[in-house]
Amino acid sequence: MINITNLHKSYQMGGNSLHVLKGIDLKINEGELVAIMGSSGSGKSTLLNIIGMLDNYESGSYDLDSIPIKDLDETKAAKYRNKFLGFVFQSFNLINYKTAVENVALPLYYQGMGSKERQEIAHEYLKKVGLSKWAGHLPSELSGGQKQRVAIARALASQPKVLLADEPTGALDSQTSEEVMSLIKKINNEGKTILVVTHEHEIANMCNRIITLKDGVIITDINTQK
């Protein structure tokens, strides 16, 4: 599903070059639930951005579902993102003036889907995350956990191959975090490939595999399945 070999990424900082990823080798199979951990500056966000086609890399290779991902222009990157990826963010990224069901339907609008079909699919995914009764509510009328459920429904609505979750529980209390991770595990059990970037060990331990980065290299890759 995801195959990364000898991946390098640097950023220019004034006259200096900051080497952020230093030869990453990573293979993630279809249906895995993987946590990516590491302290600030370890390279985990850069790695997620490259996997999410939000950033390029200098050297090495990255294949997603057997398609080489390299030097994409924004049009092609957007096309591949819509086809392959769903995103869940710490800050939810919901549109405040749109209802829950309208937020979930948004990626389908960008895919050119008709209004009736969009609505039907959006309602189906809100039901999947247990929020059918909240379909007509604005984000301001939802709790943090409900907002994240809407964000997860939105990410799933376009039926991506891979779900990328960047600190999905970072803005939530511990009980709500556990509920959101239980939902993510349920979605994974249905066969979805999911990557979770987190700094919380409790969250990582709910995943089936934990990859830890430090100073731009993978230092541990542990399968937690008993």
Please give a structural write-up.
This protein is α/β, with parallel strands linked by helices. Helices cover 35% and strands 29% of the residues. It has 7 helices and 10 strands. The mean pLDDT is 91.
Give the mean pLDDT: 91
The count of helical stretches stands at 7
The geometry reads as globular
- The number of strands is 10
Query: N-to-C terminal Cα separation, in Å?
Result: 23 Å
Largest sheet: 6 strands, mixed
How many whole angstroms does the radius of gyration measure?
A: 18 Å
Series of H and E elements: EEEHEEHEHHHEHEHEE
Helix content: 25-40%
Structural class: alpha/beta
Strand order of the biggest β-sheet: 6-7-8-3-9-10
Describe the secondary-structure layout.
Blueprint: E1 2-13, E2 16-28, E3 33-37, H1 44-51, E4 59-64, E5 67-68, H2 74-84, E6 85-89, H3 100-110, H4 115-128, H5 144-157, E7 162-166, H6 174-189, E8 193-197, H7 201-204, E9 209-214, E10 217-223
Parallel strand pairs: 3-8, 3-9, 6-7, 7-8
Antiparallel strand pairs: 1-2, 1-4, 4-5, 9-10
Quick take:
This protein is of the alpha/beta class and 226 residues long. The chain has helices at 44-51, 74-84, 100-110, 115-128, 144-157, 174-189, 201-204, and strands at 2-13, 16-28, 33-37, 59-64, 67-68, 85-89, 162-166, 193-197, 209-214, 217-223.
